[in-house]
Amino acid sequence: MATAQLPTEVLDHVANFLALPDFASLTRVSKEWHQIWTRHLWRSIHIRHDDHLDPFNTPEATKSRLQHGNYIRALHVCNFPMAEQIMLDTNIHLHTLDLLDTSRTLGLYDSQPDILFHILQRSPSLVTLKLAECPLEYERFLCTIIEYLPRLKILDVLDAEMGQIPKLKDETVKTFLANAPSTIEYIQMAVLFHDSEDLNDMVEPWLSKYHGKTTDHPALTVVSFNGHMSDEVPLVLSEDFLRSAPQLKAIEFLQENAPITEWVTSGTLHDTILRATSRSLKMLSSSGLRTFSDKDIAQHITAGQGIRDDQIRRWYSLNLEGCKHAGPATSQAIVNTCQHDLTELTVVGCEAMVSQDLQAILRSAVHLRSLDASRTEEYTDSCPRLLAQDMLISTWACRWLRTLSIEVGGIPRPDIKENQHGDPIPEGHPMYSGTDEESYVIQRRIYRQLGSLVYLEELYLGSSQGDIQLNCLSMTLESGLDFLDGLQALRVLGVGRMHHRIDTADHDWMWRT
């Protein structure tokens, strides 16, 4: 059968396994293949740094863009004028707009703020919208989303420097949430909530026509605010909004990336969630459990959940730091009772918890946003470790993870000949099992698992404490590092005390990607 006769679905599936250079080669094979593969060549444009601009500014590239720009579905760009030019030059049906590193290159605060709004108004098919910097006219931006992006599923507005976030009233955010597109699944916003004395000085007319209205949000799962918080919890989640989003489980308020857990588990916001959904979200601290047995900790977790006095009691945060006896029974209790609503989990110092326990949690805790299983100065050798053989048994359910701190081990590394003390590793040691390529096969599967966590902002695979880890990921392109290229939200990658092989080429790839 000729390639042209294959169903489009088959060609699309094949395209998932090919990279940009592959498409470029395929389009040059014949006129028939040029017609088949050109749309895949142009479907996603990546301009992550200004030095990537030159190939797009040649007369030949401009002519080709004008001819084939209608195939573009995703823009990942660091250059705002280029994004505008592509949008104005072509009849584009954009699904993804990812404006990268705006604090350095985009200039949303410059003299042409209308450009962003023109782009959004021309993109009614947009599904994913990510900005690395808050627009100066924040309320106008939110209003534009409501009015022009009816298919939006992912909204991610960050400000890594936390330096130029415009102030917003509680009522502004509350009105936006209530009227966000009905298709929305994930909302993360950098915010600076106003102080009460600033209220009369803020003029925000854009959303006034939506006050008091609410849209159903059947798919909304995550709402996260990150930035500068006031002393009191902002009143942005109304009861009507919470009722409109029955799948909303992960609600976060972060003070410059640090969760303010008590805002969700006590006080005004907790009571609002309770009235709207009958769910009482709770926080468990390890301070009173550190001497408990594994069975007793498990019973405490299990007993803390359930229906009581017409309330559905669920754990929102479990901090088991230092509970050295927490092991299989505890992890099973987490799996049995915390598949929903559990957002934060800390198992630092849980020395009885083994690799299978961690894997069971990761494949069950659907709404987990933060998992900390790292070593600390106090718990250098008593933290659970995830082994490759367990990690690869099944895929993880925690697709919304924002922060992951975990040590992945059990990876054969025949390329390492000496331990951290300079002593030769003897033949027959598990480190020497198999060949380099067999090790790479295992590592690539691990990278794929990690690479599926597209909302990760902080990934710590190493540690600042303890011995140097030998049976770890080598973190090289040769071993499959490029499978992490989907982690576009990643701000921090920790590889401390890992015997990695990162060299100049790997570092350059990280910088480019």
If you had to describe this structure to a student in words, what would you say it looks like?
The structure is a single chain. With 513 residues, the chain is α/β, with parallel strands linked by helices. Helix content is 31%, strand content 16%. The chain has 18 helices and 20 strands. It has helices at 8-15, 20-26, 31-41, 59-68, 80-89, 102-106, 114-121, 138-148, 170-179, 239-244, 262-265, 267-277, 294-303, 328-337, 355-362, 388-391, 436-451, 504-512, and strands at residues 44-47, 74-77, 96-99, 128-131, 154-157, 167-168, 186-193, 222-228, 250-255, 258-259, 279-284, 306-308, 311-319, 344-346, 370-372, 386-387, 403-405, 408-409, 458-460, 492-494. The strands form 3 sheets. Strands 1, 2, 3, 4, 5, 6, 7, 8, 9 and 10 form a 10-stranded mixed β-sheet that branches. Strands 11, 12, 13, 14, 15, 17, 19 and 20 form an 8-stranded mixed β-sheet that branches. α4 links the parallel β1 (44-47) and β2 (74-77). The longest helix has 16 residues, at 436-451. Mean pLDDT is 84; it is low at 102-107. It comes from Linnemannia gamsii. Residues 1-45 form the F-box domain.
What's the layout of helices and strands?
Layout: H1 8-15, H2 20-26, H3 31-41, E1 44-47, H4 59-68, E2 74-77, H5 80-89, E3 96-99, H6 102-106, H7 114-121, E4 128-131, H8 138-148, E5 154-157, E6 167-168, H9 170-179, E7 186-193, E8 222-228, H10 239-244, E9 250-255, E10 258-259, H11 262-265, H12 267-277, E11 279-284, H13 294-303, E12 306-308, E13 311-319, H14 328-337, E14 344-346, H15 355-362, E15 370-372, E16 386-387, H16 388-391, E17 403-405, E18 408-409, H17 436-451, E19 458-460, E20 492-494, H18 504-512
Parallel strand pairs: 1-2, 2-3, 3-4, 4-5, 5-7, 6-7, 7-8, 8-9, 11-13, 13-14, 14-15, 15-17, 16-18, 17-19, 19-20
Antiparallel strand pairs: 9-10, 12-13
Helix pairs in contact: 2-3, 5-7, 7-8, 13-14, 14-15
